[in-house]
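Repro:
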Amino acid sequence: MEESSMSLEEMVGQMFLVGLPGTQPDPQIEALVRDRNIGGVLLLGHNMESEGQTAALVRSLQELALDNEPSTPLLVAVDEEGGEVSSAPWVTPQPAAAEVGAGGDPAVARQIAVQTGRELRRAGVNTDLAPVVDTGYGAAIGSRSYGEDPGLVAVMGAAAVEGFESAGVVSAAKHFPNHGVAAADSHVDLPVVEHARETVLNYDLPPFRAAVAAGVPMVMVGHLLYPAIDPERPASLSPDAVSLLRRELGFEGVVVTDDLGMVGASGEEPPGRVAVEAVKAGADLLIVVGPYEDQVEAYEAVIGAVEAGEIPRGRVEEAFRRVREVKDRYPLYAANSR
């Protein structure tokens, strides 16, 4: 799975994490796996009825990926945070992060992540888009945050990262640089956070710094406008925000976007344009939940932008390398040892 052996189309495919409509593979998701070499799938509540059904869905998609060149296993992701954001029906219900944070014991956060990760793996889910390391209980976050003290959030979030690591599950600290103080929900609007740069460094970023130090393999950039970082673009589409994550925090893993279909990212822009801007900003993995037409448009737009010289081929090779390194580091699917 080296860059030199991959076509541009195959490398770009690995940069996408896509949604699907139902509880079984449909021809469209099969085409994305078979013909476009997509990096993975994001399972939401409507995709998962039970452990057995989810395991069958995952097995079907993984075997399809492995039976088609270049035979690359999929990231299979969920949002299983505990509390109100819990979509995998077989996973033991866990308290919301706010309750865990209030208890003050990072060992509890770690154990919850270990148990959640092990239970997810029973059905073949290998990636959890967690923990939330946002500080504060603002819009769209609420009880999903460990608290309003960045020091507490840092300790709890790092413990959760260690727990997922122990369970062999890929984790993602989110939503960089901090959705917890936002007054708007990026699903339906573009939140603006008027923090001075000093506040960003001393209040917003410490939990992400701790997650990076704990070895988190992925960091999710949010659809948040921080004028002190970039006055024009949300973090998910901002080279300055990604540079802050790379240089200030020393993060070398996968930068994953929040769903690019959310209003905070897309506004009035078409899916293809948003995807191109995310890649130019430095994102390595793009979440495009759907619909299928948007997924194809985003994929084709990135390829077109490379061919037109708007995106350097080296940027795609870099993103592919980071995704590949995460895939090599974790046991994604048992059959890939066959």
